[in-house]
Amino acid sequence: MDHDRLADKDLLVVSHGYKHFVKSQVDVLAEYFDSITVCVRYNWFADVASRLPIDGGEGFGKDAKIAQTDVPENVHVIETPLLYLPLDIQREHLLGQQHVRKVKQQLESHPVSFDLIHCHMSWTSGYVGARLKDELDIPYVLTVHANRNWFETQLQSDNERLHEAWSSADRLIRVNRRDRSKLEAYNDDVVHIPNGYDTDTFERIPTAAARDRLGIDAERPVVFALGTLKPRKGFQHLMRAMTTVHDGEPDARLVIGGQGGMRDELESLAEELDIDHQTDLLGYVDSETLNDWMNAADLFVLPSYSESFGVVQLEAMACGTPVVATENGGSEEVVTSDDYGLLVEGPESHDELADAILDALHREWDADAIEAYANELTWENVCEEIADCYVEVLDEHERETESARQ
Fold first, then answer.
1. What gap in Å lies between CA 344 and CA 348, rounded to an integer?
2. Which of 17-31, 42-56, 117-131 has the least mean pLDDT?
3. In this structure, are residues 370 and 202 in contact, taking their beta carbons and an 8 Å threshold?
4. CATH class of the domain defined by 207-375
5. Which residues, other chains included, contact 34 with Cβ-Cβ below 8 Å and sequence gap of 6+?
6. What is the DSSP letter of 150?
7. What is the rounded CA–CA span in Å between residue 182 and residue 172?
8. Among 142, 147, 236, 281, which is disulfide-ready with 306 (CB 3.0 to 4.6 Å)?
9. Helix, strand or coil for residue 309?
10. Does residue 11 surpass a pLDDT of 90?
11. Pairing state of beta strands 140-144 and 171-174?
Protein backbone atom coordinates (compact mmCIF):
# COMPACT_ATOMS: atom_id res chain seq x y z
CA MET A 1 0.00 0.00 0.00
CA ASP A 2 1.17 3.53 -0.75
CA HIS A 3 2.32 4.86 2.61
CA ASP A 4 3.58 8.04 0.91
CA ARG A 5 -0.07 9.03 1.09
CA LEU A 6 0.61 9.86 4.76
CA ALA A 7 3.76 11.93 4.26
CA ASP A 8 1.99 15.31 4.27
CA LYS A 9 -0.63 14.33 6.86
CA ASP A 10 -0.96 15.32 10.51
CA LEU A 11 -2.14 12.70 13.00
CA LEU A 12 -3.85 13.40 16.31
CA VAL A 13 -3.42 10.69 18.95
CA VAL A 14 -5.58 10.72 22.08
CA SER A 15 -4.39 8.30 24.73
CA HIS A 16 -4.00 7.49 28.40
CA GLY A 17 -0.23 7.51 28.17
CA TYR A 18 2.84 8.24 26.09
CA LYS A 19 4.99 5.46 27.48
CA HIS A 20 5.56 1.79 26.71
CA PHE A 21 3.39 0.44 23.88
CA VAL A 22 1.75 3.73 22.86
CA LYS A 23 5.07 5.59 22.72
CA SER A 24 6.74 2.73 20.85
CA GLN A 25 3.96 2.73 18.26
CA VAL A 26 3.77 6.52 17.91
CA ASP A 27 7.53 6.89 17.54
CA VAL A 28 7.61 4.42 14.64
CA LEU A 29 4.54 5.97 13.00
CA ALA A 30 6.20 9.38 13.21
CA GLU A 31 8.33 8.27 10.25
CA TYR A 32 5.18 8.09 8.12
CA PHE A 33 3.64 11.48 8.99
CA ASP A 34 4.44 15.15 8.72
CA SER A 35 3.55 15.49 12.42
CA ILE A 36 1.91 13.62 15.27
CA THR A 37 0.26 15.38 18.21
CA VAL A 38 -0.36 13.21 21.28
CA CYS A 39 -2.89 14.38 23.88
CA VAL A 40 -2.14 12.37 27.01
CA ARG A 41 -4.65 12.15 29.83
CA TYR A 42 -3.37 12.00 33.41
CA ASN A 43 -4.88 12.56 36.85
CA TRP A 44 -3.37 15.66 38.42
CA PHE A 45 -4.76 14.64 41.81
CA ALA A 46 -2.42 11.63 41.66
CA ASP A 47 0.54 14.01 41.49
CA VAL A 48 -0.74 15.81 44.57
CA ALA A 49 -1.42 12.50 46.35
CA SER A 50 2.13 11.32 45.67
CA ARG A 51 3.40 14.12 47.91
CA LEU A 52 0.95 13.30 50.69
CA PRO A 53 0.72 10.31 53.08
CA ILE A 54 -2.18 8.75 51.12
CA ASP A 55 -2.45 5.84 48.71
CA GLY A 56 -4.37 5.33 45.50
CA GLY A 57 -2.68 7.58 42.95
CA GLU A 58 0.19 5.33 41.89
CA GLY A 59 0.45 4.99 38.13
CA PHE A 60 -2.01 7.77 37.24
CA GLY A 61 0.15 10.89 37.53
CA LYS A 62 2.08 12.75 34.86
CA ASP A 63 5.45 11.08 35.44
CA ALA A 64 3.86 7.63 35.26
CA LYS A 65 1.99 8.46 32.06
CA ILE A 66 4.33 10.59 29.96
CA ALA A 67 7.89 9.96 28.79
CA GLN A 68 9.93 13.14 28.67
CA THR A 69 12.94 11.89 26.70
CA ASP A 70 13.68 10.39 23.28
CA VAL A 71 10.70 12.07 21.63
CA PRO A 72 10.92 12.35 17.82
CA GLU A 73 11.17 15.91 16.48
CA ASN A 74 7.81 15.74 14.73
CA VAL A 75 5.95 14.36 17.78
CA HIS A 76 4.35 16.98 20.02
CA VAL A 77 2.98 15.84 23.39
CA ILE A 78 0.16 17.80 25.01
CA GLU A 79 -0.33 17.06 28.69
CA THR A 80 -4.05 16.75 29.47
CA PRO A 81 -4.66 16.98 33.23
CA LEU A 82 -8.00 15.63 34.47
CA LEU A 83 -9.35 15.42 37.99
CA TYR A 84 -11.12 12.28 39.14
CA LEU A 85 -11.41 9.95 42.08
CA PRO A 86 -11.66 6.14 41.73
CA LEU A 87 -15.46 6.19 41.87
CA ASP A 88 -17.25 4.16 39.23
CA ILE A 89 -20.15 6.55 38.68
CA GLN A 90 -17.83 9.46 38.00
CA ARG A 91 -15.46 7.52 35.78
CA GLU A 92 -18.32 6.04 33.79
CA HIS A 93 -20.49 9.10 33.22
CA LEU A 94 -18.61 12.32 33.96
CA LEU A 95 -14.99 11.71 33.09
CA GLY A 96 -15.64 11.34 29.36
CA GLN A 97 -17.25 14.77 29.15
CA GLN A 98 -14.42 16.30 31.14
CA HIS A 99 -11.87 14.68 28.84
CA VAL A 100 -13.61 15.95 25.69
CA ARG A 101 -13.87 19.46 27.07
CA LYS A 102 -10.20 19.59 28.09
CA VAL A 103 -8.85 18.28 24.78
CA LYS A 104 -11.02 20.70 22.79
CA GLN A 105 -9.73 23.61 24.87
CA GLN A 106 -6.13 22.57 24.30
CA LEU A 107 -6.54 22.13 20.54
CA GLU A 108 -8.09 25.58 20.09
CA SER A 109 -4.64 27.13 20.37
CA HIS A 110 -2.76 24.31 18.63
CA PRO A 111 -1.54 25.42 15.17
CA VAL A 112 -2.19 22.15 13.33
CA SER A 113 -5.11 21.09 11.14
CA PHE A 114 -5.43 17.33 11.60
CA ASP A 115 -6.24 14.77 8.92
CA LEU A 116 -6.84 11.72 11.11
CA ILE A 117 -7.47 10.75 14.75
CA HIS A 118 -6.21 7.60 16.44
CA CYS A 119 -7.32 6.89 20.00
CA HIS A 120 -5.99 4.31 22.43
CA MET A 121 -8.36 2.88 25.07
CA SER A 122 -12.12 2.95 24.55
CA TRP A 123 -13.06 4.95 27.62
CA THR A 124 -12.39 7.81 27.78
CA SER A 125 -10.04 8.46 24.84
CA GLY A 126 -12.32 6.73 22.35
CA TYR A 127 -15.22 8.94 23.35
CA VAL A 128 -13.03 12.00 22.75
CA GLY A 129 -12.24 10.69 19.28
CA ALA A 130 -15.91 10.08 18.48
CA ARG A 131 -16.77 13.67 19.40
CA LEU A 132 -13.83 15.22 17.58
CA LYS A 133 -14.53 13.18 14.45
CA ASP A 134 -17.79 15.02 13.88
CA GLU A 135 -16.51 18.45 14.88
CA LEU A 136 -13.35 18.28 12.76
CA ASP A 137 -14.91 16.20 9.95
CA ILE A 138 -11.99 13.79 9.83
CA PRO A 139 -11.86 9.99 10.23
CA TYR A 140 -11.25 8.36 13.58
CA VAL A 141 -9.55 5.04 14.43
CA LEU A 142 -9.75 3.38 17.86
CA THR A 143 -7.51 0.65 19.29
CA VAL A 144 -9.21 -1.40 22.02
CA HIS A 145 -6.49 -2.46 24.48
CA ALA A 146 -8.58 -3.60 27.47
CA ASN A 147 -7.59 -6.87 29.15
CA ARG A 148 -10.09 -9.72 28.97
CA ASN A 149 -11.90 -8.98 32.24
CA TRP A 150 -12.09 -5.24 31.68
CA PHE A 151 -13.28 -5.78 28.09
CA GLU A 152 -16.11 -8.04 29.29
CA THR A 153 -17.06 -5.38 31.84
CA GLN A 154 -17.21 -2.80 29.05
CA LEU A 155 -19.39 -5.06 26.92
CA GLN A 156 -21.89 -5.33 29.77
CA SER A 157 -21.75 -1.63 30.64
CA ASP A 158 -24.79 0.63 30.25
CA ASN A 159 -22.48 3.54 29.36
CA GLU A 160 -23.87 4.62 25.99
CA ARG A 161 -20.96 7.00 25.46
CA LEU A 162 -18.55 4.07 25.64
CA HIS A 163 -20.53 2.22 22.99
CA GLU A 164 -20.64 5.41 20.92
CA ALA A 165 -16.84 5.35 20.94
CA TRP A 166 -16.98 1.90 19.33
CA SER A 167 -19.78 2.55 16.85
CA SER A 168 -18.41 5.89 15.61
CA ALA A 169 -14.95 4.62 14.69
CA ASP A 170 -14.05 4.34 11.02
CA ARG A 171 -11.93 1.38 12.10
CA LEU A 172 -11.94 -0.52 15.37
CA ILE A 173 -8.63 -2.25 16.01
CA ARG A 174 -8.57 -5.09 18.55
CA VAL A 175 -5.19 -6.40 19.62
CA ASN A 176 -6.43 -10.00 19.75
CA ARG A 177 -8.49 -12.01 17.29
CA ARG A 178 -10.92 -13.65 19.69
CA ASP A 179 -12.83 -10.45 20.48
CA ARG A 180 -13.45 -9.21 16.95
CA SER A 181 -16.87 -10.84 16.71
CA LYS A 182 -17.99 -9.19 19.96
CA LEU A 183 -17.06 -5.74 18.67
CA GLU A 184 -18.77 -6.38 15.35
CA ALA A 185 -22.07 -6.00 17.18
CA TYR A 186 -21.19 -2.29 17.43
CA ASN A 187 -19.17 -1.66 14.27
CA ASP A 188 -18.86 -3.32 10.86
CA ASP A 189 -15.23 -2.31 10.43
CA VAL A 190 -13.32 -4.29 13.05
CA VAL A 191 -9.78 -5.45 12.32
CA HIS A 192 -7.15 -7.36 14.27
CA ILE A 193 -3.71 -5.78 14.59
CA PRO A 194 -1.54 -7.10 17.42
CA ASN A 195 0.78 -5.16 19.65
CA GLY A 196 4.49 -5.30 18.93
CA TYR A 197 7.73 -5.06 20.87
CA ASP A 198 10.38 -2.35 20.97
CA THR A 199 13.56 -3.38 19.16
CA ASP A 200 15.44 -0.45 20.70
CA THR A 201 15.03 -2.01 24.14
CA PHE A 202 14.97 -5.77 23.58
CA GLU A 203 17.63 -7.67 21.69
CA ARG A 204 19.22 -11.06 22.04
CA ILE A 205 22.64 -11.10 23.66
CA PRO A 206 24.73 -14.00 25.01
CA THR A 207 23.19 -15.45 28.16
CA ALA A 208 26.61 -15.66 29.80
CA ALA A 209 27.22 -11.93 29.28
CA ALA A 210 23.82 -11.02 30.73
CA ARG A 211 24.33 -13.25 33.75
CA ASP A 212 27.80 -11.90 34.32
CA ARG A 213 26.50 -8.31 34.44
CA LEU A 214 23.70 -9.33 36.82
CA GLY A 215 25.99 -11.43 39.02
CA ILE A 216 24.06 -14.67 38.48
CA ASP A 217 25.61 -18.11 38.74
CA ALA A 218 26.00 -19.54 35.24
CA GLU A 219 24.40 -22.87 36.15
CA ARG A 220 21.53 -21.77 38.39
CA PRO A 221 18.02 -22.06 36.84
CA VAL A 222 16.38 -18.63 36.64
CA VAL A 223 12.62 -18.09 36.26
CA PHE A 224 11.81 -14.46 35.45
CA ALA A 225 8.45 -12.65 35.61
CA LEU A 226 7.53 -9.01 35.07
CA GLY A 227 4.50 -6.84 35.63
CA THR A 228 2.66 -4.55 37.99
CA LEU A 229 2.45 -6.12 41.44
CA LYS A 230 -1.32 -6.54 41.66
CA PRO A 231 -3.63 -9.55 42.08
CA ARG A 232 -4.57 -9.79 38.39
CA LYS A 233 -0.99 -10.60 37.43
CA GLY A 234 -1.04 -13.80 39.52
CA PHE A 235 2.44 -13.60 41.07
CA GLN A 236 1.04 -14.94 44.33
CA HIS A 237 0.15 -18.16 42.50
CA LEU A 238 3.51 -18.31 40.77
CA MET A 239 5.15 -18.27 44.20
CA ARG A 240 2.99 -21.16 45.36
CA ALA A 241 3.84 -23.10 42.21
CA MET A 242 7.54 -22.52 42.84
CA THR A 243 7.36 -24.56 46.06
CA THR A 244 6.71 -27.58 43.85
CA VAL A 245 9.26 -26.49 41.25
CA HIS A 246 11.88 -26.58 44.00
CA ASP A 247 11.18 -30.28 44.54
CA GLY A 248 12.59 -30.90 41.08
CA GLU A 249 14.99 -27.94 40.85
CA PRO A 250 16.08 -27.02 44.39
CA ASP A 251 18.34 -24.20 43.18
CA ALA A 252 15.77 -22.52 40.93
CA ARG A 253 15.59 -18.77 41.51
CA LEU A 254 12.38 -16.79 41.01
CA VAL A 255 12.90 -13.16 40.01
CA ILE A 256 9.96 -10.77 39.68
CA GLY A 257 10.37 -7.28 38.25
CA GLY A 258 7.86 -4.49 38.68
CA GLN A 259 6.28 -2.12 41.17
CA GLY A 260 2.86 -2.15 42.80
CA GLY A 261 0.75 -2.35 45.90
CA MET A 262 1.27 -6.09 46.49
CA ARG A 263 4.98 -5.90 47.23
CA ASP A 264 4.65 -6.26 51.01
CA GLU A 265 2.11 -9.06 50.60
CA LEU A 266 4.37 -10.94 48.17
CA GLU A 267 7.37 -10.54 50.44
CA SER A 268 5.36 -11.95 53.34
CA LEU A 269 4.11 -14.83 51.19
CA ALA A 270 7.66 -15.74 50.17
CA GLU A 271 8.62 -15.92 53.85
CA GLU A 272 5.50 -17.95 54.68
CA LEU A 273 6.30 -20.43 51.89
CA ASP A 274 9.97 -20.51 52.96
CA ILE A 275 11.16 -19.49 49.48
CA ASP A 276 12.30 -15.96 50.36
CA HIS A 277 15.96 -17.00 50.04
CA GLN A 278 15.22 -18.15 46.46
CA THR A 279 12.98 -15.24 45.46
CA ASP A 280 13.88 -11.68 44.41
CA LEU A 281 11.47 -8.77 44.01
CA LEU A 282 13.39 -6.25 41.95
CA GLY A 283 10.96 -3.33 41.93
CA TYR A 284 11.35 -0.98 38.97
CA VAL A 285 13.78 -2.28 36.34
CA ASP A 286 15.36 0.11 33.84
CA SER A 287 15.34 -0.89 30.17
CA GLU A 288 19.00 -1.95 29.91
CA THR A 289 18.81 -4.11 33.01
CA LEU A 290 15.49 -5.53 31.87
CA ASN A 291 17.06 -6.69 28.62
CA ASP A 292 19.75 -8.42 30.67
CA TRP A 293 17.14 -10.23 32.77
CA MET A 294 15.21 -11.35 29.69
CA ASN A 295 18.42 -12.81 28.27
CA ALA A 296 19.74 -14.22 31.54
CA ALA A 297 16.52 -16.12 32.33
CA ASP A 298 16.01 -19.75 31.39
CA LEU A 299 12.30 -19.08 31.29
CA PHE A 300 9.83 -16.19 31.37
CA VAL A 301 6.50 -16.76 33.15
CA LEU A 302 3.28 -14.71 32.77
CA PRO A 303 0.85 -16.18 35.34
CA SER A 304 -1.94 -13.59 34.95
CA TYR A 305 -5.70 -13.93 35.09
CA SER A 306 -6.45 -11.51 32.26
CA GLU A 307 -4.58 -9.91 29.34
CA SER A 308 -5.53 -8.25 26.08
CA PHE A 309 -2.35 -9.47 24.37
CA GLY A 310 0.66 -9.65 26.69
CA VAL A 311 3.47 -7.93 24.82
CA VAL A 312 5.90 -8.74 27.64
CA GLN A 313 5.97 -12.31 26.31
CA LEU A 314 7.19 -11.05 22.93
CA GLU A 315 9.90 -9.09 24.68
CA ALA A 316 11.15 -12.28 26.28
CA MET A 317 10.91 -14.21 23.01
CA ALA A 318 12.88 -11.47 21.22
CA CYS A 319 15.75 -12.50 23.51
CA GLY A 320 15.30 -16.17 22.57
CA THR A 321 13.72 -16.97 25.94
CA PRO A 322 10.77 -19.43 26.06
CA VAL A 323 7.54 -18.56 27.87
CA VAL A 324 5.14 -20.29 30.23
CA ALA A 325 1.81 -18.45 30.43
CA THR A 326 -1.73 -18.93 31.59
CA GLU A 327 -4.74 -18.92 29.29
CA ASN A 328 -5.78 -15.37 30.00
CA GLY A 329 -7.34 -14.03 26.81
CA GLY A 330 -4.11 -12.69 25.32
CA SER A 331 -1.36 -15.23 25.85
CA GLU A 332 -3.10 -17.78 23.64
CA GLU A 333 -2.46 -15.45 20.69
CA VAL A 334 1.23 -15.01 21.51
CA VAL A 335 2.22 -18.51 22.62
CA THR A 336 0.88 -20.10 19.45
CA SER A 337 3.14 -23.15 19.42
CA ASP A 338 4.96 -25.27 21.98
CA ASP A 339 8.06 -24.41 19.97
CA TYR A 340 7.95 -21.02 21.71
CA GLY A 341 6.42 -21.80 25.10
CA LEU A 342 3.75 -23.61 27.08
CA LEU A 343 0.24 -22.65 28.16
CA VAL A 344 -1.55 -23.73 31.35
CA GLU A 345 -5.20 -23.41 32.27
CA GLY A 346 -4.97 -20.62 34.83
CA PRO A 347 -2.89 -19.12 37.64
CA GLU A 348 -4.67 -21.08 40.37
CA SER A 349 -3.69 -24.39 38.76
CA HIS A 350 -0.53 -24.51 40.86
CA ASP A 351 0.46 -28.09 40.05
CA GLU A 352 -0.06 -27.60 36.32
CA LEU A 353 1.90 -24.36 36.43
CA ALA A 354 4.75 -26.03 38.34
CA ASP A 355 4.81 -28.98 35.91
CA ALA A 356 4.99 -26.60 32.93
CA ILE A 357 7.84 -24.63 34.51
CA LEU A 358 9.80 -27.82 35.22
CA ASP A 359 9.08 -29.12 31.71
CA ALA A 360 10.29 -25.83 30.22
CA LEU A 361 13.44 -25.76 32.38
CA HIS A 362 14.38 -29.29 31.25
CA ARG A 363 13.47 -28.92 27.59
CA GLU A 364 15.95 -28.11 24.81
CA TRP A 365 14.60 -24.95 23.16
CA ASP A 366 15.55 -23.54 19.77
CA ALA A 367 16.36 -19.95 20.74
CA ASP A 368 16.86 -18.97 17.09
CA ALA A 369 13.33 -20.08 16.22
CA ILE A 370 11.86 -18.26 19.23
CA GLU A 371 13.67 -15.04 18.30
CA ALA A 372 12.62 -15.34 14.65
CA TYR A 373 8.98 -15.73 15.67
CA ALA A 374 9.12 -12.61 17.86
CA ASN A 375 10.75 -10.64 15.07
CA GLU A 376 7.59 -10.98 13.02
CA LEU A 377 5.92 -8.71 15.58
CA THR A 378 8.31 -5.81 15.93
CA TRP A 379 6.67 -2.39 16.09
CA GLU A 380 8.20 -1.67 12.69
CA ASN A 381 6.25 -4.58 11.18
CA VAL A 382 3.07 -3.94 13.14
CA CYS A 383 3.06 -0.25 12.22
CA GLU A 384 3.04 -1.17 8.54
CA GLU A 385 -0.35 -2.77 9.17
CA ILE A 386 -1.52 0.29 11.08
CA ALA A 387 -0.33 2.56 8.26
CA ASP A 388 -2.26 0.40 5.77
CA CYS A 389 -5.34 0.90 7.92
CA TYR A 390 -4.82 4.67 7.93
CA VAL A 391 -4.51 4.84 4.14
CA GLU A 392 -7.70 2.82 3.70
CA VAL A 393 -9.61 5.04 6.09
CA LEU A 394 -8.36 8.27 4.50
CA ASP A 395 -9.22 6.99 1.01
CA GLU A 396 -12.73 6.05 2.14
CA HIS A 397 -13.24 9.44 3.76
CA GLU A 398 -12.05 11.21 0.62
CA ARG A 399 -14.46 9.21 -1.55
CA GLU A 400 -17.35 9.92 0.82
CA THR A 401 -16.53 13.64 0.81
CA GLU A 402 -16.40 13.74 -2.98
CA SER A 403 -19.67 11.86 -3.24
CA ALA A 404 -21.38 14.29 -0.83
CA ARG A 405 -20.28 17.23 -2.99
CA GLN A 406 -21.82 15.82 -6.16
1. 10
2. 42-56
3. no
4. alpha beta
5. 7, 8, 9, 10, 74
6. H
7. 12
8. 147
9. coil
10. yes
11. parallel
Q: Which residues contact 63 (CB under 8 A, 6 or more apart)?
A: 47
C-alpha 330/C-alpha 335 separation (Å) is: 9
Q: Are 319 and 371 in contact (CB under 8 A)?
A: yes
Q: Tell me the pLDDT tens digit for each residue of 306-331.
A: 999 999 999 999 999 999 999 999 99
At residue 97's C-alpha, the angle toward residues 91 and 99, to 5°, is 80
Q: How confident is the model at residue 23 (pLDDT cuts 50, 70, 90)?
A: very high
The Cα–Cα gap between 365 and 384 comes to 30
Beta bridge partners of 79: 40
The predicted structure's pLDDT at residue 132 = 98
The reported pLDDT for the residue numbered 1 is 85
Report the amino acid identity of residue 307. Answer: E
Q: What is the pLDDT of residues 351-387, one digit of tens each?
A: 999 999 999 999 999 999 999 999 999 999 999 999 9
Dist CA 277 CA 371 (whole Å): 32
Report domain 3-196+378-405's class: alpha beta
The arrangement of strands across the sheet holding 222-226 comes to 279-283, 253-257, 222-226, 299-302, 323-326, 341-344
Quick one: which of 346, 335, 347, 342 has its CA closest to 362? Answer: 342
Reported in sequence order, the residue ranges of 180-246 that DSSP labels E, i.e. its strands, are 190-192, 222-226
Q: What is the rounded distance in angstroms from the CA atom of residue 264 to the CA atom of residue 145?
A: 29
pTM of model > 0.90: yes
Residues 6 or more apart whose CB falls under 8 angstroms from that of 40 comprise 15, 16, 17, 18, 65, 66, 77, 78, 79, 80
In angstroms and rounded to an integer, the radius of gyration of the C-alpha atoms of the chain is 22
- Listed in order, the ranges of the chain carrying CATH 3.40.50.2000 are 3-196+378-405, 207-375
